[in-house]
Design a protein that fits this description.
Largest sheet: 5 strands, mixed
Oligomer: single chain
CATH architecture of the largest domain: 2-Layer Sandwich
Protein name: Transposase
Helix content: 25-40%
Organism: Acididesulfobacillus acetoxydans
CATH superfamily of the largest domain: Ribonuclease H-like superfamily/Ribonuclease H
Strand order of the largest sheet: 6-5-4-7-8
InterPro entries: IS1634_transpos (IPR047654)
Number of strands: 8
Length: 315
């Protein structure tokens, strides 16, 4: 049983189409199938065809006849965002326990936004497709899938960075302990060095002029405000602690702060390794007073008779 459409040509050559309910039967003489019209519905232009199709299916279902497969609507492409890179980084983030460390610290604060997820989104962005914090507003919902974060606003990123800056020492210490435990690190050698980076900007922020300053530029841009970045790492290059100072800070002046900041980190007996930029008389005395050993670069023409003879004290 099916619905068919027939055409009839009028005297004025116009064509009118009619809808019929039909059922095929075989001609007893010829054996060929022929349509047996069961009901005439009338003119096509005056009928609701979709209602007729539903009626046809209902009748065939009642009679136990197989239904023709209904063509499913074609899928519509909406959007596509990569997941793999962010998913991998998120698993590493959780394996290192960074999410738990941040959430513990955040319990003391009353934030209405997902600060931990915003921080992860910024880290993932630096690894996958570095952009400005403002561009993160488009990158998160349109270009990547960040687990647990549908979108982010730039002020949320700034607020999360403020929290991280305020909690830097505690977070860095806990992250290092987690990494050291996971990789069974033995911190017997500590390498320390500094570098500088500069800011391209039209105007300085008055509130931040105590940090950004003009000084010697390793990038040949003495005209731009810069900062000094210090980093202490293990023999395998695993970061232990980082520092940021104004660019007019000399290497000779940072050792006391570095030793003081690492004093409570339970690093055990450590040999500190530094280049000759840090090996002033005062710095070496500080290293000796703290009871640790050190390897410090020295100019051979310095003429110090003790070079190379006091084990792990002067090299």
């Amino acid at each position: 049983m099916y619905i068919r459409v027939t055409s009839r040509k009028n005297k004025d050559n116009s064509v009118v189409k009619y809808v019929q309910l039909a059922h095929n039967v075989r001609n007893p003489k010829t054996g060929s199938p022929q349509a047996n019209v069961l009901f005439n519905f009338g003119r096509l232009d005056r009928l609701d065809m979709e209602s007729l199709r539903r009626l046809e299916r209902s009748i065939r279902r009642f009679l136990g006849e197989p239904l023709d497969p209904v063509e499913a609507p074609k899928p519509e492409f909406l959007s596509c965002r990569p997941l793999g890179g962010a998913w991998f980084l998120d698993q590493l983030w959780r394996k290192l326990g960074i999410d738990s460390i941040l959430k513990r610290r955040l319990k003391e604060r009353e934030y209405r936004t997902e600060v931990e997820r915003a921080l992860f989104a910024m880290v993932a962005n630096r690894a996958l497709a570095p952009l400005s914090k403002l561009q993160l507003e488009k990158w998160v919902p349109e270009k990547v899938v960040i687990p647990g974060l549908a979108n982010v606003e730039v002020q949320h990123c700034y607020r999360a960075m403020d929290f991280l800056l305020e909690s830097q020492e505690d977070v860095e210490r806990e992250v290092f302990y987690a990494v050291a435990d996971l990789f069974h690190l033995e911190v017997d050698l500590l390498f320390f060095d500094t570098t500088s980076t500069y800011f391209e900007m039209d105007a300085w922020d008055d509130e931040e002029q105590d940090l950004k300053a003009l000084g010697h530029s390793k990038d040949s841009r003495p005209d731009l405000p810069q900062i000094v970045i210090g980093l202490a790492v293990t023999r395998d290059g695993i970061p232990i602690r980082s520092w940021v100072w104004p660019d007019n800070t000399s290497d000779m002046s940072v050792i006391p702060e570095v030793k003081r900041d690492l004093a409570g980190w339970k690093l055990g007996r450590v040999v500190s390794v530094m280049d000759r930029g840090f090996s002033s008389e005062e710095n070496l005395r500080i290293l000796q007073r703290t009871g640790g050993h050190y390897i410090a670069g020295e100019r051979l023409r310095a003429g110090k008779p003790e070079l190379g003879f006091d084990s792990f004290s002067w090299i």
